[in-house]
Write a structure and sequence with these properties.
With about 290 residues, the chain is α+β, with helices and mostly antiparallel strands. It is about 35% helix and about 30% strand. The relative contact order is 0.17.
Length: about 290
């Protein structure tokens, strides 16, 4: 049996670091939003117990190191049936190591898809607990839509779907290490923190001015110092007509929010030649 699934990317409409935990992770509070940019995952069941992965992107491993492989292996272990197998084909559209949750989205799609194909009937809560073993963003990618995320990202409060805004993604060729960004993070250098309560209210009301005032990503204080082009892209996106612009995750992707397709096209056309990846999409509701 074969199943095709979309694995949508995410952006962080806000990201606040509340402190470092004893286990080395950081406690976060952030508003997360699914967007229309998706990888495609094709799953085919096997009866020989093998898990095979193929991926269109040369930088993505096609072995046990791939998070989609890990998702299938974990689900197989939970099932207790070692005869279960799957062929996983990943068509990558989401940039790798971009702060857009591409790997987590792929893992979430595999968990959902194989739960169905293998007839495991695991609940959403059971899948989320399994997903957390793979990565902090996987539980959100399983749920999708709009959510307030706390803890390391696993404590999720679903939020009502906001007004549909256009999103322009801008990713330079240069990359950053998420671990390095968090290691360098110092709250003393943060200029602006998000107001998540106000942001949630502004999203519900569709107030662009209030959304702009409430949004912030404290990790910009680190990543912008490592990649100054990000600050330049953020400012230029605003000049081309975005009502808000911000980095997602630990970077290096900048996203710009636009009220309509005309403004989104102006941002895209104005900045696409300065980056390695540019893309126009929109908010996406729960898959």
């Amino acid at each position: 049996m074969t199943l095709n699934l979309n694995a949508p990317a995410k952006i962080n409409l806000s990201l606040d670091v509340l402190g470092r935990r004893d286990d080395g992770y950081h406690n976060l509070e952030m508003v997360m939003q699914t967007i229309g940019l998706c990888d495609n995952i094709c799953l085919e069941t096997r009866t020989d117990g093998q898990i095979l992965v193929r991926c269109s992107h040369p930088q993505v491993p096609a072995d046990e190191e791939n998070i989609a492989y890990k998702a299938a292996s974990l689900l197989k272990e939970l099932s207790g049936n070692m005869h279960l197998g799957a062929s996983i084909t990943i068509t990558k559209n989401i940039p790798v190591a971009a702060g857009l949750g591409g790997g987590s989205a792929d893992a979430a799609a595999v968990l959902k898809g194989l739960n169905f194909l293998w007839g495991l009937k695991l609940s959403p809560g059971e899948l989320a607990r399994a997903g957390l073993q793979l990565g902090a963003d996987v539980p959100f990618c399983l749920m999708g839509g709009t959510a307030l995320a706390r803890g390391i990202g696993e404590l999720l409060t679903p939020l009502p779907p906001p007004q549909l805004f256009w999103v322009v993604l801008l990713k330079p060729r240069e990359g950053v290490s998420t671990a390095d960004v968090y290691k360098r993070y110092n709250p003393a250098f943060v200029r602006s923190r998000p107001n998540n309560e106000a942001l949630i209210a502004a999203l519900a009301a569709g107030s662009k001015d209030d959304i702009t005032k409430a949004m912030a990503n404290v990790l910009e204080s680190v990543t912008f110092s490592l990649l100054p082009i990000l600050g330049h892209l953020k400012q230029q996106a605003l000049e081309y007509g975005a009502f808000a612009s911000q980095m997602t995750g630990s970077g290096p992707t900048i996203f710009a929010l636009a009220a309509d397709s005309r403004r989104a096209a102006a941002i895209y056309n104005g900045l696409k030649n300065q980056v390695d990846f540019a893309y126009i999409t929109t908010f996406k509701e729960v898959p």
